[in-house]
Design brief:
The protein is mainly alpha-helical and 134 residues long. It has 2 domains: 33 residues; 98 residues, no CATH class. The N and C termini lie far apart (65 Å). 14% of the residues are buried. The structure holds heme C. Heme C (HEC) binds next to helix 3 and helix 4. The site of heme C (HEC) has 19 residues, from helix 3 and helix 4.
């Protein structure tokens, strides 16, 4: 009976230590990659990105080309310099109506950005880039 109690106690103790150490590790990695939490994405922006851009531009995307240029899920892990350049790219591609790609919109016109959505993305990307350069 005493042994059983000791075994259970040790298991719980080890599990606790593991949780604390792995938790600590992920936190430090996150801090190293993104020390000041450089990016906040307001809900309105997040919704547009999710509806109109995310499918092609995330780590698990089937489009290698789109993934190479922009992985939206990785934005918060980028360095300040890279983040500014990605934000500028987003503002520019939307301003120039390069994104979403024309070919894709021919097939799926409902995925085009509305004027409001374009403005939301451009304003956010420009302001966020300006903030980072201060
Ligand atoms: C149907 C898939 C698809 C969708 C949807 C899409 N993109 Fe793209 N995007 C691509 C591809 C493919 C490329 C690479 C084009 C190339 O290399 O010529 C790209 C490139 C880019 C680039 C890099 C441009 C450059 O020249 O470096 C940016 C920035 C970008 N997309 C932003 C967006 C934004 C913002 C949205 C949403 C409004 C969006 N994309 C929606 C497929 C997509």
């Amino acid at each position: 009976m005493k042994n059983l109690f000791l075994t259970i106690f040790s298991l719980v103790f080890i599990a606790g230590i593991l949780t604390i150490t792995t938790g600590f590790k992920t936190e430090t990695v996150q801090k190293e990659v993104n020390p000041e939490n450089l990016l906040t994405i307001p809900d309105s922006v997040n919704k547009v990105l999710k509806d109109k851009c995310f499918d092609c531009h995330h780590s698990g995307s089937e489009s290698m080309k789109a993934k190479m240029k922009l992985k939206l899920d990785k934005l918060p892990t980028l360095s300040k310099r890279k983040l500014i350049s990605k934000l500028d790219g987003i503002a520019e591609s939307v301003e120039e109506k390069d994104m979403p790609p024309e070919k894709f919109l021919k097939k799926y016109p409902e995925h085009a950005l509305t004027d409001d959505e374009s403005k939301i993305l451009i304003d956010w990307a420009n302001n966020a880039a300006d903030e980072l350069m201060k």
